[in-house]
Amino acid sequence: MISVKKQALTVSAALAAFALTFGAPVLGHAAYQLNPEVKDATPALKEASAIGVRTHNTEALQNLPNKDAMVVMSFGTTYKDTRAFTSHIIRDRIQQKEGITYPTPEEALAELKKDGYTRVALASLDVIPGMEYNYDAAVYNLYKDNFKKMTLGTSLMYWMGQENQTDQVIETLKAVQSQFPKLGKEDGLLIMAHGTPDPSNAYYSVIQDRIHTLGMKNVFVYTVEGTPNLEQVIPQLKLHGIKHVTLMPFMMVAGDHANNDMAGNEPDSHKSILEKEGFKVDTYIHGLGENPNIRKLFVERANESWDALQK
């Protein structure tokens, strides 16, 4: 079987979308099912209950032969070594500065349609189902009727143990723990997430809760563009008697936020702010995509979308 496990990660550096042919599906995928007592679900109720892996069949196109593709979507970065794109701002900056044009997911789907692909699995490289994942879902909803069948996988962390699903927050923390430094009583670890204006910013509170559940002492999550921010976490460091801090990005790639906002030498970098507060600071400049345990989880998410396409 040629699976997403060997193919999906090739997107991490240079591609926003690609087409592949796969073998037999693996049974099961993380989708929500309406209560069987609901016999006459309205279109609005069906749309509202589209949770987890999403699947759509376009009845008018069911006579078309199957020609399958996968589109892998990631926010992206202006750092050349870690590229894949749903961000229009990043794409525009690269086009203006380097003269390189990368396709949006919409453009990739239009190209697949033109090339005769009839069934498409969408996979996401987002960490939480925030605003960027909402964009993935919008692409799915706007383009699903153009294909015989379309599926949409979930972000790295989506389910939190509800509906008999896996607690993917705990699963992710266990996976990323392999890169944590050994911490003494006066050592702390700050994992820097992105943050989002979407209400799903609450995931970071869940992450902190699961950190405590797993007994990870002196480990704190904070965000660049959400809450909690660095200023809100510093009092916690002092309260716990921490004198030495390691900063680590909790993002798919170690791009501009990790290299500059977190670890830069400018006075307003997180490293500089913590040093001014009297902490000794070390930095770990590697994105989640470099961790083989995390890559395995992203492959599982992509496989869930692909498996749903095959059913």
Give an overview in words.
With 311 residues, the chain is an alpha/beta fold. 36% of the residues lie in helices and 14% in strands. The longest helix is centred in the C-terminal third of the chain and has 19 residues, at 292-310. The chain has 2 domains: 4-159 and 293-310, Rossmann fold (3-Layer(aba) Sandwich); 182-283, Rossmann fold (3-Layer(aba) Sandwich). It is elongated, with a radius of gyration of 21 Å. It contains 12 helices and 8 strands.
Strand content: 5-15%
CATH topology of the largest domain: Rossmann fold
How many domains, in number, for the residues?
Answer: 2
Give the ordered list of helices and strands.
HHHEEHHEHEHEHEHEHHEH
What's the overall geometry?
elongated
SS-based class: alpha/beta
Helical content (DSSP H or I, runs of 4+)? 25-40%
Mean pLDDT comes to 85
Poorly predicted regions are 1-29, 77-83, 85-89
Q: What distance separates the N and C termini?
A: 16 Å
Please identify, by name, the CATH architecture of the largest domain.
3-Layer(aba) Sandwich
Beta strand count: 8
Tell me the name of the CATH class of the largest domain: Alpha Beta
Strand order of the largest sheet: 1-4-3-2
State the helix count: 12
What is the radius of gyration? 21 Å
**Mind describing the biggest β-sheet?**
4 strands, mixed
